Amino acid sequence: MATISSLGIGSGLDLNGLLDQLRSAERQKLQPIAQQKAQQEAKISAYGRLKAGVDKLQSAAQSLNDTALYQKLTASVQGDGMSASASDKASPGRYDVTVTSIATAGTLATTRVDSLETGLTDAGATLDLAFGDGSTHQVALDAGSTLEDIRDAINADEAAGVDASIINDGAGYRLVLSSRETGVDAGITGMTFAGLSTGVTLGEDAATARAGKDASLTINGIDITSATNTVEEAIQGVTLTLTPEAEGNTLSLTVARDKGSVKEAVNKWVAAYNELQSTIGRMIKPGVDGASSGELIGDRTVRTLESRMVRDLTSSVPGGDYTQLSDLGIALNKEGRLEVDEETLDAAIADSPASVASFFAGESDETGMAGQFSATLEQILDDKGMIGNAIEGAESRVESLNDRYTRMEASVERTIERYRKQFSQLDGMIAQMNQTSSYLIQQFDMMNAQLGRNNR
Question: In this protein, which residues make up the domain named Flagellar hook-associated protein 2 N-terminal (predicted)?
Fold first, then answer.
């Protein structure tokens, strides 16, 4: 059988071109399937974006449903040199904090040595350190250790309790020890070398001793000491952090309800809802002036989602001073977006924080408005929920369309193969007819020539 490249040689017809046209015409049957598949894939993508928006909204609703949000406290300081933070164990109140001194680390230096190259120790040498709490620590030193080697041995010892460095005082070199922690107890108070090389005199220089100090302050007239500048639990649930600028100052500390966190959580939830509505709006927008319509126009999943959310937003929450979102200045506008009356919301948070907490969080996970709203979205987001089922259905349709496309494509190829065989037969027939025609013409020409000779 002749191949496509040889079609038309025998007949002189453009059978290859005609076969290509027939192929294009047959493949038009695939376009509706491809379009349906593209629509379903677009739906899957849209469902994914919808799910992401619902997930973000549920996360914001869960934050509003957390009772800890309404128990948060904030600590503010007036004055320089101190910062403060409050945990949920703190209580609202005002405090005057007078800082006499901050906590410092103890320091102590050795007598000087002339050179950093000189070996200072014999085998078995040690350095004994003493601290303000009466504890001691021994650092082992290698034979022939220089001042730098001694420094490195101290710094490599995690239990030494001090950091070591070297200072050149202009006449020689000194080893300087600084306590790793502040406070009287952790402060370095003495050091003694044992096993020094013959002729080496190295020891502590008492004149350089600077004892570690505890922070000293008063809170509402009550004396407080702290080994560190992070003063914890002097006020229950409150942590104070002191810096040198605080010394000699009286600062005002206020611990109060964190109204800003509640409002921030409300606004975050409102923004997530409005963002989801914008996403849905694009998905269900009808095509106008040639523009394509949204991927989920007329989709039942979207309609159900919107109706359930509106139901929760407009339902009453019994048992509290606030029973409707509108009581807090939050309402749906004509476009289906949430709007916040900042003045009304601020007043509610400031005047009735417990009522605001009761409205959003309730007494259990699903009794408040935010809890009910979050539970609704959780059902929708479940693997077997509306969105999951919609995605699964669309994926199943894509798989079915893929099968149809494959079968149709195979049918098209079989049809083209049949045309190819028919064209090959046609090409052969026309070629044979052309040969017969040429032979007959040749015979007629010979007969005419013979008759002409006979008539002379």
Answer: 11-105
Q: Mind listing the pLDDT tens digit for each residue in 24-43?
A: 887 888 888 888 888 888 88
Q: How far is CA 113 from the centre of its chain?
A: 56
pLDDT in tens, 370-385: 999 999 999 999 888 8
Number of domains in the chain: 3
Largest CA distance in the chain: 156
* Same domain assignment for residues 1 and 43: yes
pLDDT band, very low/low/confident/very high, at 4 (cuts 50, 70, 90): very low
Whether 353 and 71 have beta carbons less than 8 Å apart is answered as no
Which two structure tokens, joined as six digits, stand for 251? 């600062």
61 alpha carbon, distance to own chain's centre: 18
Confidence of residue 421 (pLDDT cuts 50, 70, 90): confident
427-449 average pLDDT score: 77
What is the separation of C-alpha 347 from the centre of its chain, rounded to a whole number of angstroms? 34
CB 91 within 8 A of CB 233: no
- Please indicate whether residue 11 or residue 207 has the higher confidence score (pLDDT): 207
Residues 25 and 94 in one domain: no
From the number of C-beta atoms within 10 Å of its C-beta (0-12, 13-18, 19+), residue 317 rates as: buried
Query: Which contacts (CB < 8 Å, 24+ apart) does range 411-419 have?
Result: 412/23, 412/26, 412/27, 412/29, 412/30, 415/26, 416/19, 416/22, 416/23, 416/26, 419/19, 419/22
Residue 447 lies in a domain: no
DSSP-derived secondary structure for 431-452: HHHHHHHHHHHHHHHHHHHHHH
**Are 177 and 219 members of one domain?**
no
Residue 297 lies in a domain: yes
